[in-house]
Design a protein that fits this description.
The protein is α/β, with parallel strands linked by helices and 429 residues long. The protein contains 16 helices and 17 strands.
Length: 429
């Protein structure tokens, strides 16, 4: 790499480029459509793509000549494949403590909700996170972001929800705010105060929702530390009425809406997401066909989390049926300390193609453009085309399909964020 143009670069000698296209979610059969180009180049100026396409055309040659004349950094892909930066649109990456014992309990057959009822699960992470300092949370989050970057993740959503009180929820969100200036990975924060019922409100979920609405939401809104509001809408946690009440209050306070919906029991969370025109409904393992159809009609993104189903040994969400029904599907990791201590983008690619019956094209779209749409960023992120943010992943492979074919292997060679080289193999820029 050479050059000194900040946020300006020219990626040359791309053997095979593949990317979805467009500035909004891609739904249904359109998820199979990728722009593909051999012998490509990408030019970016001040963090924004000005050209992505064949290097041999007059337009391509002119774009490269102009970039070099303006001092743009030169990145040689050496005939490798190139795709957009991955967008992990559902994570809980700010937490303290671990729950390895629960992993082995589940491996022996103990159900997730039984662990939850025994005082494990989210409550155990709550206790550890309440005890953690801001410094502790920032340091732990930084390490996880470094791993994400090495896996090609350039944008990530992060949720609070391991405090279940005012102070810790704000501390989690503050940690994400501080990390925004420390890591190249772009962070979209979500307030997930109703993630579980804290011990102070044992068996009183409605009272806890009252507390969140009157005491916590206003402080989070005033702090401007979160973009989205989310809730664990699930039997034994927060029912449809409490979820609706909370989400309407969050919407009134200026938050965009997300839901953990119909993961364990079908209670209608997906239908509520459609009713409120949420940005996304996530998990959806048990969502009804009628509610999924309503989501499709309202343009709600269906975010499937295959690593969690894998970890819990549950059937995967019917992403194939969702796409065939006309939904826009995103895929995300759900990185968290309990039900899914993984952030493996390579494993998502493998599971999606081998077990969820998605094509490679649908999988790539789900982890890029539709991931961006699930974060309200599709107009600026998630694809390699003129006018989009220059978030680029160069693979140590000749074709993008190796992301699924080379099972479970991290093939990321180089990562560019906003036109800046931020990661290359084991050495960061």
């Amino acid at each position: 790499m050479r050059g000194n143009g900040k946020g300006s670069c020219a990626v040359i000698n791309i053997g095979s480029l593949a990317s979805p296209q467009g500035k909004r979610r891609t739904a249904g059969t359109a998820m199979n459509s990728l722009y593909r180009c051999k012998n490509a180049c990408i030019v970016a100026k001040e963090g924004v793509i000005t050209y992505a396409g064949p290097a041999s055309t007059e337009e391509g040659r002119h774009a490269l000549e102009k970039a070099q004349a303006e001092g743009a950094s030169l990145i040689d892909a050496e005939n490798r494949a190139c795709v957009p930066g991955f967008i992990d649109s559902h994570t809980h990456f700010i937490f303290a403590g671990y729950r390895a014992d629960e992993f082995f309990w589940r491996a022996c057959g103990l159900p997730y909700m039984e662990i939850h009822r025994r005082g494990g699960g989210i409550r155990k992470s709550m206790e550890a996170t309440r005890s953690a300092t801001l410094h502790d949370l920032v340091e732990a989050g930084k390490k996880r972001l470094d791993t994400m970057l090495a896996l090609g993740v350039t944008t990530v959503e992060g949720k609070s929800g391991y405090g279940l009180d005012i102070e810790t929820e704000l501390r989690q969100l503050t940690a994400m705010h501080e990390l925004c200036s420390m890591s190249p990975v772009e962070i979209l924060p979500t307030f997930l105060g109703p993630h579980a019922i804290p011990p102070e409100f044992e068996s009183r979920p409605s009272d806890y929702i009252d507390f969140v609405i009157t005491e916590v939401l206003p402080k989070v809104a005033t702090s401007k530390l979160a973009v989205f509001a989310d809730i664990f809408c699930e039997k034994g946690v927060f029912d449809i009425e409490d979820s609706r009440r909370y989400l309407l209050a969050a919407q009134k306070a200026g938050f965009k809406l997300k839901l953990h919906a119909d993961e364990i029991v079908r209670i209608g969370g997906a239908g509520l997401a459609a009713e409120l025109a949420a940005v996304s409904a996530d998990h959806l393992l048990k969502a009804s066909p009628e509610d999924l159809q309503a989501m499709a009609e309202k343009g709600v993104i269906a975010t499937c989390l295959p690593l969690t189903a894998f970890s819990l040994r549950e059937p995967y969400a019917d992403a194939r049926g969702m796409i065939d029904r006309g939904l826009a599907v995103a895929l995300a990791s759900d990185l968290n300390p309990g039900s899914c201590y993984s952030q493996s983008i390579p494993l998502i690619f493998a599971i999606a193609v081998l077990y969820m019956k998605l094509t490679f094209e649908e999988t790539l779209t789900a982890l890029t453009l539709n991931g961006a749409a699930a974060l309200g960023l599709a107009a600026s992120h998630g694809s390699l085309e003129t006018g989009k943010t220059a978030d680029i992943v160069i693979l140590d492979a000749p074709e993008p399909e190796h992301l699924s074919y080379h099972i479970g292997m991290n093939l990321v060679h180089t990562v560019v964020k906003r036109g800046e080289l931020v990661y290359q193999q084991s050495t960061k820029a």
